[in-house]
Design brief:
about 775 residues; single chain; 33 strands; 5-stranded mixed sheet; 20 helices; globular; 7-stranded mixed sheet; binds cytidine-5'-diphosphate
């Protein structure tokens, strides 16, 4: 028996039903669209039809005359208040409303504020803008050519379209490895642009109280505290007078991390008009103007010995950032990408170069179900390893096994200079192979081939990196990346936990309550978890890139342990014993909580609460192996998924049901990218993929079934051994799907094909190698 009788039921590892679902199931969620304030006005945004054009004039007079219109805001009006431009989370600038030029299709040009949302939208058609079209840059390669139009000519000293150039690793050692290699394989590929497309688009209700000057902004924010600070910096409002409330959010996936012009104009309008202003984005607005994902060009080589040992990796990456650099990238290096570009492999030398360029497209490259370009890096190394297996004529599973970082080498410093905290890759590979029936499948594949059928088996063994900080390496706009938890136990033994992160559907109200329950024995249903209201939660950097569990989950465990330490002292006082003797006698946490407010010892502060700002010593490195089986139809190029096995290791699982839900979401997303999702642009910069008939998302009908497995390698530095999991399925599965389709065609020499693998593209590849029917 311990000092604090916790009725220890082991709350970690239990599939506790999601507490938050009760309100969602009965339609009582509280989303931005549900918020209605007295006297509220409505805002609609006029967007540019051109991707690049000079603005000669904007005439708002006809719109202003429409009954119900209160005001039409243009960039010139904002410029009078120094609000026409705003900083991005990557330290660049972005127009709030265009003044000189538009630089992407869909850019915000003017806003109508009206008594009624329909009037606001009708009035947009009455605004006359005189545009003078300019040459358009739609690819980063074109952007970096000599003589390309300088997109950001508004920026002093910007003479070309390059945004950044970063390098990692050792160029000389890599050169040497390639010079000595027996075999070099090369892959040139593009990870296409896609969009997080959350179910709920972005929006806000800005309410600036004219009497007190307090700005209460209800907004779809994955990072409410960081957004509060940005608002203070942009609008010059005193930070104590800004309250960001992020209510229930219908998905974020990185898309709700950047600050968008709509939030800023609605807040400025509320400030000027003294009335609340609501802005709700429509689907096209979301798809064409908010943070997209990927759009990464990769060209690299892998050096190997004759026997298959990997000796060197060289990669050049070019990223299409759109017209502003706004993906909330930590300032010091290409986080994520540089960490794990060598994948799960013990590659002694690597050199990686990455450049970013402005184009006439929406800003983005957000951490969409991954942390900071991890998906792209992971995709690339897995595709390269698969290519190497074919060219060496060896089994792709065995080539992976041969080159895995062995478990005894952890913590492992990669050739790009980052430390993997833990890993044990073979058991995950073995489990995936065993579950998918790999040996038998390879036999079946041979037989199928003899019958003229194209069966493919694809693998991906990924390593992810999640949980930014540590703060010495990561900051957003100088704000250090830590996270926080504040735990208060009430006299009746019920508790409230307040966090700096913000769920967008991940189930934090359940899993974080489980962490407290594990530490203190208060059942999860007695613990309220509060997030998203900056006046009532401690400062944190928010939820994206799977950082909540590694960072805020650790803060929660540490805060609970502080409470437990005080509870021990209270228990000793109640039992009139010394703390050391408590092994033998007990008080329940509920009795102790009551005493904290009614019978605490002399000299001890009343109350039972603790706060922790957790700065992790390192990121965590979840991993796994996925296997996908497909059959390709030679007549149509369509590919049918026969089986998907996903084995993930995210350390200690707090709530296995929630983890599985997260993985299935990621697998669906991976399937979507591999099979159908694509946002592209014509030569004039018109966005193709601006609605759900052009931009295809997988529904339950076409999404294949998944079989999930797990291994458990706890993070050695996390207080409960948990690693984040939210995104790893997205990281691993696209490569596994593409590798499976290529495997089906491989014997005929198809080594590369870009996503999405639409049937016409696959059929053309089949046709080229004489396999089409
Ligand atoms: O930052 P975000 O919440 O998107 O990602 P995460 O930290 O990977 O967690 C996603 C969800 O899975 C949360 O509800 C976590 O608490 C839960 N989870 C878990 O139960 N066990 C883990 N080892 C990791 C995450």
């Amino acid at each position: 028996m311990t000092a604090v009788e916790t009725e220890h039921k082991g709350w970690l590892g239990r599939s506790v039903k999601r507490k938050e679902d009760a309100r969602f199931i009965v339609g009582r969620g509280n989303y931005i669209e549900d918020i209605k304030l007295p006297g509220m006005l409505h805002m609609a945004i006029l967007r540019s039809p051109y991707a690049h054009a000079k603005i000669n004039s904007i005439d708002t007079s006809r719109a202003m005359e429409l009954p119900g219109v209160v005001v039409v805001v243009t960039g010139d009006v904002l410029a009078e208040h120094k609000l026409a431009w705003m900083p991005t989370l990557s330290g660049d600038t972005q127009a709030v409303l265009a003044t000189d030029k538009v630089r992407m299709q869909g850019q915000e040009v003017a806003c109508v504020i009206a008594e009624d949302p329909y009037v606001a939208h009708d009035a947009l058609e009455l605004i006359d803008v005189d545009y003078e079209p300019l040459p358009v840059v739609t690819t980063p390669q074109a952007a970096l050519e000599d003589g390309a139009p300088v997109i950001r000519d508004d920026k002093e000293g910007q003479t070309d379209n390059r945004i950044y150039h970063w390098e990692a690793g050792d160029a000389e050692a890599t050169e040497q490895a390639f010079a000595e290699a027996d075999k070099v394989v090369r892959l040139v590929t593009h990870y296409p642009r896609c969009h997080p497309a959350p179910l709920e688009c972005c929006g806000c209700v800005a309410d600036v109280n004219p009497a007190t000057g307090k700005a209460t902004i209800h907004m779809t924010s994955q990072a409410p505290h960081a957004h509060r600070t940005v608002f203070a910096l942009v609008a010059g409002l005193p930070e104590q007078n800004i309250q960001i409330i992020s209510p229930d959010i219908g998905g974020g996936f990185g898309n709700k991390v950047p600050v968008y012009p709509g939030y800023v104009v609605a807040t400025a309008a509320s400030l000027l008009l003294g009335r609340p202003v609501k802005w709700i984005e429509d689907r096209t607005g979301n798809l064409i103007s908010t943070g997209f994902a990927r759009d990464f060009y990769m060209d690299g080589e892998l050096a190997l010995k004759e026997d298959g040992t990997m000796t060197g990796l060289r990669v050049n990456m070019l990223s299409d950032q759109g017209y502003a650099y706004a993906d909330a990238q930590p300032s010091k290096f290409r986080a994520g990408l540089f960490h794990i570009v060598t994948g799960s492999y013990d590659i002694p030398a690597a050199h990686v170069v990455t450049d970013g360029a402005y184009t006439n497209k929406a800003p983005g490259g957000v951490a969409y179900r991954c942390s900071f370009r991890v998906t792209e890096a992971s995709f690339f190394i897995e595709r390269l390893v698969q290519t190497a297996a074919y060219e060496l004529g060896v089994d792709p599973a065995e080539l992976r096994r041969q080159n895995f970082i062995p478990p005894e080498k952890f913590p492992y410093t990669s050739a790009t200079g980052f430390e993997y905290d833990s890993g044990n890759y073979e058991p995950a590979l073995d489990q995936a192979l065993q579950r998918v029936g790999y040996k038998v499948l390879r036999e079946e594949q041979k037989r199928a081939r003899e019958e003229g059928r194209l069966l493919g088996i694809g693998l991906a063994s990924f390593t992810e990196v999640v949980g930014a900080g540590p703060s010495r390496h990561y900051d957003i706009l100088g704000i250090k990346m830590f996270d926080s938890a504040e735990l208060r136990v009430h006299p009746t033994g019920k508790a409230i936990l307040k966090l700096g992160v913000k769920s967008q559907g991940q189930g934090h109200e359940t899993t974080f309550a489980q962490i407290v329950a594990e530490e203190l024995g208060i059942p999860p249903e007695d613990i309220a978890v509060q997030e998203g209201d900056t006046d009532n939660t401690p400062y944190g950097l928010g939820t994206y890139a799977s950082r909540s569990t590694p960072v805020a989950g650790a803060a929660t465990a540490v805060a609970a342990r502080k409470v437990r330490d005080k509870a021990r002292k209270l228990a000793a006082h109640l039992l009139e014993a010394s703390e050391d003797d408590l092994e033998w006698r007990a008080k329940t946490i509920q009795e102790i909580a009551f005493a904290a407010y009614t019978d605490h010892p002399e000299g001890m502060e009343a109350g039972l609460e603790a706060t922790n700002y957790y700065d992790p010593p390192n990121m965590t490195f979840p991993f796994g192996t996925y296997a996908v089986v497909v059959e390709v139809d030679r007549g149509t190029g369509a590919w049918d998924v026969k089986k998907v096995v996903a084995v993930d290791d995210c350390g200690t699982r707090i709530n296995p049901m929630i983890v599985e839900g997260q993985i299935m979401g990621g697998l669906t997303e991976g399937y979507g990218t591999a099979a159908m999702e694509l946002i592209t642009f014509d030569e004039d910069g018109n966005c193709i993929g601006s609605n759900f008939t052009d931009y295809l998302l997988p529904g339950s009908w076409e999404t294949p079934a998944f079989e999930l497995g797990e291994t458990v390698t706890p993070s050695p530095h996390h207080p409960i051994g948990a690693k984040g999991v939210g995104e790893s399925a997205t990281v691993g599965s696209p490569a596994a799907y593409v590798n499976a389709v290529i495997d089906a065609l491989a014997h005929a020499g198809v080594r590369n094909i870009d996503m999405p693998l639409t049937s016409d593209k696959v059929w053309s590849a089949l046709n080229e190698v004489g396999l089409a029917e």
